[in-house]
Structure formats: C-alpha cells, structure tokens
Amino acid sequence: TYSTVGFVGLGAMGRPMVEHLANKLPETTRIYVFDVVQAAIDQLCEKYPGRILKGSDAKDVAQKAEIIITMVPEGSHVRSVYLDSTHGICATDINGKLLIDCSTIDTATSLAVKDHIATRFATASFYDAPVSGGVVGAIDGTIAFFLGCHPTDANLARLTALLSLMGGKVIPCGGPSLGLAAKLSNNYLSGIIAIACSEAMDMGMRSGLDPRVLAQVFAAGTAQNTICDRFNPVPGVFAKAPSSNGYREGFKVQLMRKDFNLAVEMAKRVGSKNVLGGAGLETYTGAMNDPRCRDLDSRVVYRYLGGNEE
Ligand code: NAD
Fold first, then answer.
1. How many Cα atoms within 13 Å fall on the side-chain side of residue 151?
2. pTM of the model
3. Would you place residue 1 in the very low, low, confident or very high pLDDT band (cuts 50, 70, 90)?
4. Ligand 1 centroid vs 8 CA: distance in angstroms?
5. Over 70: is that where the pLDDT of 271 sits?
6. Pocket-forming residues, ligand 1, beta carbon under 6 Å
7. Which residues form the active site (predicted)?
8. Top mutation candidate among 13, 61, 90 for ligand 1, by most atoms within 8 Å of CB
9. Which of 201-231 are b and which e, b meaning 16 or more Cβ less than 10 Å from the residue's Cβ?
10. What is the rounded (10 degree) CA torsion for 207, 210, 216, 219?
11. Region 93-98 average pLDDT
12. What is the CATH code for 181-304?
C-alpha cells in the first residue's frame, strides 16, 4: 500500500488512469497530479476533492509522492518531465521512490532517463511500462501493461499491484526498455496487418466478393487475426469496429504513425531486416496528412488506399 501516489500527464489516457487510482486506492491515499495544461489538473482536483491534489510541477509531485507514474506523448516530453533542471522529477531527491513511465517512446530515451536516475539516485527505481488497449481500455480499466522488468525483480509485486488498479494484464518483459520494445513490435505488427487486411479486402471486393463473406473466409482460414475480426477496416463488416462508426473513437492514425516510426527506427538500430517498414511508414504518413483521414482511427488506411466504402 502507498500513502501517496503521483501522476504526471493527464491527457486522453492519463486522466482515466488517475480516476481508477482515485476510485480504487484506499481513501487515505493522496494522489498528486501535474500537467502543463492547468485545466486538466483543475478538473480532476474538483472531481475528487481532498483525494487528488495539485502539484505545482513534476518536481513537486516527485517530492510529495512515493511512487510516480508519467504518461506524456513523446520522448522529448519524457526527458523534460524527468530531466528538466528546475521543474523535473530528478531535480529533487528521489531516493527510495518508484518511477513508472507509461508513455510510448523510443527505447534509447527511456534507457537514457533510467541511466541518469541510476547514476544520481542509488535507491530510486525507474521502469518503462507502455500500455495497449486505447482510450476505451483506459476508461474501462482493461489496458495491458508491458513492463520493462525481469520476472524476478524485487519490485514486481508492488508494481503489478498498482498497475492492476488501472488495467488488466501486466506482463514483465525481461528488463529495462523491453516493455517498450514489446509495445513497438506489437504496434508494428498490428499496423502492418491493418494495411494488409485493407488490401486483401479491397482485392476480394473488386473481384466480386461480399465483404462480410470475405471476412468469414479470413476468420475460418489461415489469415485469421484480430484486426480482420474486430477492427475490420471496411465499414459495415463488424458493427462495433471504428470503421462502422465513421472511423471514430479508435486509435488515431497519427498515433499509429508515431509508434510505427519508432518501431522502424528500433528495427534499424538493432539490425532487423524489416522489408515492410518503409511501405508501412509511407502509408501511415500519407494517411496522417490526408484531411479525409487525420484524427480518425488508424484503420482509415483502407480509405486512404482507395477502398470502396459503399
Ligand atoms: P494526450 O496528448 O491526450 O495526453 C498527454 C498529456 O501530457 C497532455 O495532457 C499534455 O498536456 C501532457 N504533457 C505534455 N508534456 C508535459 C510535460 N512536460 N509535463 C506535464 N504534462 C505534459 O496523449 P495520450 O493519448 O494520453 O497518450 C499518452 C501516451 O500514451 C503516448 O505516448 C501515447 O502514444 C500512448 N498511448 C496512447 C493510446 C491512445 O489510444 N491514446 C494508447 C496506448 C498508448
């Protein structure tokens, strides 16, 4: 149990994650929050008076809390949240504290932050713990955490207990930055499948097949996969898929492009051959910049690739 928890980054994901903590941690636990957007802080503090308290910056949150979670967009934000010499988490004594970064960023930045902490604070522990499951999963409390730690890590039980309050599975991935390596590999695969599914649906439909029949065939055949089954990019195939709802309320195409780019960079760095990476990156970059697709669910690549939506 913890008497104090800190949370930095109260956006689409962070806000519902904090609400789960406020609803499930013992009433005596205080949650200190910070975001560069003041309104994001005020909304939460007003909703949970006395339980969620305002931090003046990331450093202040780190000073007050025993365990600190961060959920910001990109590597540059993670650097500034942790390393800023005036307002950052490392500007205060964080010895003995647990720090968990849930942002999806590159492994090199995460390792650099971890090294910086390890050299200055002998007893502070930093972990990467990116999530999967989207905004809906964050609200429902079903997101999965890919935790950058060894299965025998002394902190694993404590980390799992806390993360489980905000989600479902917590998978220890083996060591520092490997949660991120797992997350980026996952999103690379899911991004490639969405493009492949769009193309396969399109060629079948242009040949005369009904898209629902085609989806049944994939489900019964060797091509069976979750994207085709539950997130089919063709509108009307699966009623609950974002595509059947105008590609709204899914995983935004610009976030997929961000993660895909990070995955391709990682593949290059580790010497993975990655022949589909270039085509995928070009496709998601094009879709992200297409006004018919921007801000919509990433499976809108089907539209970008000229698929028929009738
Ligand atoms: P978001 O843009 O909605 O929220 C990010 C928040 O961080 C914003 O409120 C922003 O003001 C705040 N922020 C930025 N810089 C800050 C700083 N220096 N100090 C304090 N606060 C700062 O983004 P999101 O959708 O919540 O995503 C957060 C992370 O989770 C990203 O890395 C994203 O890739 C990942 N993720 C998102 C989804 C999704 O579906 N949205 C799913 C899985 C993972």
1. 2
2. 0.95
3. low
4. 10
5. yes
6. 8-14, 34-37, 40, 58, 71-73, 77, 80-81, 103-104, 131, 134-135, 251, 255
7. 183
8. 13
9. bbebbeeeeebeebbeebeeeeeebebbeeb
10. 40
11. 98
12. 1.10.1040.10
Residue where the block lists tokens 């009433």: 27
pLDDT in tens, 175-207: 999 999 999 999 999 999 999 999 999 999 999
Q: 193 C-alpha vs ligand 1 centroid, how far in Å?
A: 25
Please write the tens of the pLDDT for every residue from 118-150: 999 999 999 999 999 888 899 999 999 999 999
CATH architecture of the domain 4-175 equals 3-Layer(aba) Sandwich (3.40)
What are the φ and ψ backbone dihedral angles of 30, each rounded to 5 degrees?
Answer: -100, 140
Residues of the chain with CATH 1.10.1040.10: 181-304
Ligand 1, residues 35, 59, 76, 298: which to mutate, most atoms within 8 A of Cβ? Answer: 35
* Residues carrying CATH 3.40.50.720, the chain: 4-175
Which tokens hold the place of 154? 């002394």
Residue 250 pLDDT greater than 70, yes or no: yes
Interface ipTM above 0.85: yes
Amino acid at 54: K
SS3 content of the chain, % helix, strand, coil (to 5): 50, 15, 35
Mean pLDDT across 101-113:
98
Which residue has 């930055």 as its token pair? Answer: 177
